[in-house]
Amino acid sequence: MRKKMRSVVALILAAACFFTACSGGLTKVTGTVIEENFDGSTKYWRENGDCKVTVSNGEAVISDRKTSNAGIEFPCDAFRGNTINVTVFAKSANPTVRISLRYEIYGNISYVTIAETSVLETSYLPIIGDITIPANASDPVVYIEATDVMDISVKSVKIEVTGDYNDLTSTPVDALQDPSGYESLKDLYSDYFMVGSAIPATVIDNPNPEFLQLVDVEFNSVTPENELKPENVLDAETTLADPATYNECPALDFTAAKPILDYCQENGLKMRGHTLIWYSQTPSWLFFENYDVNGTLASRDLMLTRMENYIDSVMNWCEENYPGVIYAWDVVNEAAGDNGGMRDCYWKMTVGDDYVEKAFEFARLHAPDGVQLFYNDYNSYSPNKQQVIIDMLTPIAEAGNIDGMGMQSHISSGLQPDSYIEAMNRYADELGVVIHITELDVSAPPSANPYYDQGVYMKSLFEALIDAVDNGTPLECVTFWGLTDDMSWKSSELPLLFYGNLAPKPAFEGVVCAIKGGDVTKPEDYVEVADDFTPISEDYEDQEFIGGPRYSSTQAIVGNAYDGDYCLENSGGSAEYDGYSIDVSRFIGQSIHFSFAVKSNADMVCFTADIDGSWPHLCEVDTSGGDWVFYEGDYQVPSGMTNLSVYFESSDTSSFYLDDLTIEVN
Ligand code: G3I
After folding, report:
1. Ligand 1 centre from 464 Cα, in Å?
2. Which domains, and CATH codes, for the chain?
3. In this structure, what DSSP letter does residue 251 have?
4. What angle separates helix 506-516 from helix 450-470, to the nearest 10 degrees?
5. Residues 193, 469: contact at Cβ < 8 Å?
């Protein structure tokens, strides 16, 4: 169905012809698709940042990348106000390649993640994602970057408008709202926890004073969104120009962080320092002898010296120049892997498995008095990751070298508040630490009333937080990851408290109601939703399907079915969990019966619920025989969430085939 819709739209729009005024010899954008194959017939791209781009034989090789964001970019001005689908085929030695969107809005620059994939060095893999470009955005560009500075090769890039095309080339900009009369979250929650926000550098010198007024009214803690990350603090130019002098202690440059530190100092705001030791946004040269990426990796001893000097210098430069401003540091960020164990990264490769332990040992040794030391991670409420984190942090806690657990909390309304609080209590009890929620954003659910439903969820979440603190959970700070939806790293998911023009969203009202009482206001255009338990039934004979890809998989209707002529093929995933996903939100809280036929070269195909932070298998089907297997079973769908998907995945990345799928209420 989705595919049919896209092609109809493409046909209608084939007649429309518009172009972006491009400088520097770029190909004019006509129609609703940008398609670059690096064969010399088009050039929709230009260089972004410090790097070299060589195009030959249908591929672009991006080398000499001095920063992780350096690469190529595609101006997308003609697509403002539209949702685009971006597909990039890339290969690289970088662990992860990312496609991002950058735009300017109300004087702020936003960097939004479209998709990222663990790529391979030797063969091309697709990176695919959808994003909506805000109508008010100026100079939107899609760009290709990575978590590190190794070469990236790109074979093709396709950027295509999905759905009906909106021509918004002359949309008026909504006036910014004056936030001075808003309810103050920091005041409302002063008996419970500090309330913070991550802010980007552009907010500090923004010509519109409303952004900082909002910070002033609402928050008493600030986290620099990017400016204290290693790649912004390490002075590459000075260090690499004289590696012998800086061998044990790389040169540092705090130019990026100074404006926000100045602002906090002048306005009596406290800052969370983010982050000292991280696998990402840390250039690979740091880990090599003589800082030469073509040489050999540095020894454990040398890396321990560099680590200690870095931690000491950064923490103490901040304390000496801005005494008392930084009250907590994320000493280590995201060291736990997504599939159990610790994440593979240069710190682990050079120092060894105890690199987290050593980082906290050095941090404790050099931390200014009173500064709290945190470990920070995402999905830290998921049971598997909890165990990995607790195992990793136990010796550190026993040595008295950690004060807090930072739960990032990039969540959806699928996360049940009770299990979230349980996770907090587990960290607090087993490690003897306090808790900060460090990066809260809540994706709006794909429901008929997304803003309202998000507000209702926010209220229940904050009621649970209040209740937890009343019952002894040592939650000391809740930080939102950004100010407005437009400025969020996941802007399309509308995850924050304020609209782009600073008007408060129902999500803000939900946080206020949680502590003051009252209910989130139902909007005038509220869409009544009747109970709809219509069964899902797909036999693919009409060549249509209602689900879609989970991450980078592709679905197609093919022959050799279990029953009839057609079945669904899922292929192209770069991880086992890249599967076929179906929205089953209407069955939340219900007991359901499901049945399907499945076939795969993988040993097993699982039918899994996509609950935020846990992924329970509804069933595991043995497909090792290679033939079709029919399966049926029951599942009690949990309640307390507003949206839910289920998906099929295989035990390796082999394709699988699906037929005669039904899901219905018992
Ligand atoms: O600074 C450069 C700029 O000089 C350059 O012109 C531009 C190129 O287009 O790129 C800029 O870098 C961007 C950077 O933000 C801004 O400092 C990167 O491309 C962009 O990927 C980067 O995104 C940040 C991301 O971390 C990666 O560091 C997001 O803004 C930030 O919200 C996000 O935050 C992370 C937390 O640190 C850890 N937890 C997850 C969270 C979300 O990904």
Report:
1. 31
2. 19-162 (2.60.120.260), 177-195+204-219+433-522 (3.20.20.80), 220-402 (3.20.20.80), 536-665 (2.60.120.260)
3. -
4. 30
5. yes
* Amino acid in the structure at residue 480: F
**φ and ψ at 558, to 5 degrees?**
-135, 175
**546 secondary structure, DSSP code:** S
Q: What one-character DSSP code corresponds to residue 77? A: G
Output DSSP code: residue 517: -
Return the structure tokens found at 107.
């004087």
DSSP E strand boundaries for 67-220: 71-75, 83-92, 96-105, 108-118, 125-132, 138-146, 152-162, 194-199
Respond yes or no: is residue 439 known to be catalytic: yes
Q: For 17-62, what is each residue's pLDDT tens digit? A: 344 434 458 999 888 999 999 999 999 999 999 999 999 999 999 9
Q: Which of 67, 69, 98, 279 to mutate to test the pocket of ligand 1 (most atoms within 8 A of CB)?
A: 69
- pTM assigned to the model: 0.85
CA dist 16 and 271 (Å) reads: 50
Mean predicted lDDT score pLDDT of the chain: 92
Residue entry with tokens 């991006």: 62
Closest CA to 193 of 215, 213, 221, 217: 221
In the numeric block, which tokens belong to residue 511?
């946080």
pLDDT in tens, 233-242: 999 999 999 9
Whether 509 lines ligand 1, by a CB cut-off of 6 Å, is no
Nearest residue to 479 (alpha-carbon basis) of 263, 254, 269: 269
Protein residue with least CA distance to atom 3, ligand 1: 69
**CA-102 nearest atom, ligand 1:** 9
Residue 466's Cβ-side half-sphere holds a number of Cα atoms within 13 Å equal to 17
Q: What SS3 class is residue 124?
A: coil
Torsion sign across C-alpha atoms 333, 339, 345, 348: positive
Active-site residue identified among 36, 225, 357, 439? 439
DSSP strand pairing (434-443 vs 404-407): parallel
Determine if the peptide bond prior to 275 is cis (ω within 30°): yes
Q: CA 457, 460, 461 angle in degrees (round to 5)?
A: 85
- What per-residue confidence (pLDDT) applies to 372? 98
- Identify whether the C-beta of residue 492 lies closer than 8 Å to the C-beta of residue 504: no
Q: Is 377 in the pocket of ligand 1 (CB under 6 A)?
A: no
